[in-house]
What we know:
five-stranded antiparallel sheet, lyase, (3R)-hydroxyacyl-[acyl-carrier-protein] dehydratase activity, MaoC-like_dom, UPF0336/Enoyl-CoA_hydratase, Hydroxyacyl-thioester dehydratase type 2, mitochondrial-like
Amino acid sequence: MSFIWRNVCSNRQLCLSSVTAAPLHRRLLHVGQRASLTKAFSSRDVELFAELTGDTNPLHLDPVYASTTSFETPIVHGVLINGLISAVLGTKMPGRGCVFLYQEIRFTAPLYVGEEVLAEAEVRKIKMSFAFIAVTCSVKDKVVMEGEVMVMMPVEQQEKK
């Protein structure tokens, strides 16, 4: 519950303060709630990620090397794909203030540079201040990553007032 402070003045010399309860506007998380975003990673995105992390595996950066693999062309770093899930959780659901605690993910197919990927999250269970969320990243009908995560919900979403 939050409070609004008001000054009640009967005249210019005497001012009393009063407190009244103000309703809270809470966006509560619930089982079945979903959120998503889409993104296409460019070769520059992949290069920047490699620079930031030091993961310069030629499978991601070198078309000549990638052509010698089963993928045939460079693929996006898996952890970069996973970053989309972090973006969904931190900006959409549960949203700002949530803390990413645990994940179990599988990379089931490659994501190629330029493919538009859909990152989706769905709340499966809520226990106390924790939300258990199913996550997937897909390109059309091709799932490139799937799994489950656990987050600590922001304080304002932990209980209904």
